[in-house]
Design goal:
Layout: H1 7-13, E1 20-26, E2 38-44, H2 48-57, E3 64-67, E4 73-75, E5 80-86, E6 95-97, E7 102-106, H3 111-120, E8 123-124, H4 136-142, E9 145-146, E10 149-150, E11 155-161, E12 167-171, H5 172-175, E13 189-196, E14 198-199, H6 202-219, E15 225-226, H7 239-245, E16 252-253, E17 256-258, E18 266-268, H8 274-292, E19 301-303
Helix pairs in contact: 3-6
Length: 314
Amino acid sequence: MTFPDISALVRARAPNLRGHLQANAPLAPYTWFRVGGPAQLLFSPADEDDLAYFLAALPEDISATPIGLCSNLIVRDGGVPGVVVRLGGKAFGAIEILAGGKIRVGAAVPDMRLARAAADAGVAGLAFYVGIPGSVGGALRMNAGAHGGETTDVLIEARGVDRRGNIRVLSHADMGFSYRHSEAPEDVVFTGALFQGKPGSADAIKAEMARVTEAREKSQPIREKTGGSTFANPKPDSAWKLVDAAGCRGLVVGDAQVSPMHCNFLINRGAATAADIEGLGEEVRRRVKENSGVELRWEIKRIGLAASGPATTR
């Protein structure tokens, strides 16, 4: 699918823009699933001020959708209308170790890199991030967690820019964290965060991270074209157990498959479309509901327009 080129309109509204604009930019190469259509307009801001200037100038009827490392995202085959904002570079990738176990970090920093930087500095409490394949911006949005830790446990405040171009600083209370969710305003594009760790032994933290990494490599299909955990755990149950009990381990739709290794992961076997992957997830949800009465909630975010064409379940 090809969208109308709106880059000239945007540049006319924001003539002093310093960031990069690309019309009909392919998004599939950015996603871990390697699927999906283009962004009508992809914007990579130069820094936070550039992002604020851009969002303030953007016409209200043009949407702005932020993406990060796309490890927990399905971009639908029809692509994403409006603007997709992707942060990168030094402006959003910095990590600053502060006094008292505090760490200031840009939203584009990978969670794993944050965990390693904290360990190198002897700051404990953030090691769980080594098991999360996304970036800090996504962790803020969904209260990402793993191996007994969650973003809510360590966040002091988050920083971002809203749709009107206002720079916002959100306290922990403002974030409204719950399991794999936050109540932060949907229009805020996160640009950074301040975390609170505690003193620790660098060697002990790194040993803990090594254990987490080893366990993840043994139990999750991380070398496949996949995403993070597909469904949130409906506590006290585990999503993977419900999926397994419903007979969905290895289930295939098109060229998408429920991972035989860990059945809360979906994988692209090579030629899957976004519709295959999303359709497989919906079929799993249907079978789990039929088998157990539990309605699984998607943990993977899905954005964009669907394309036509049913897939086959087997």
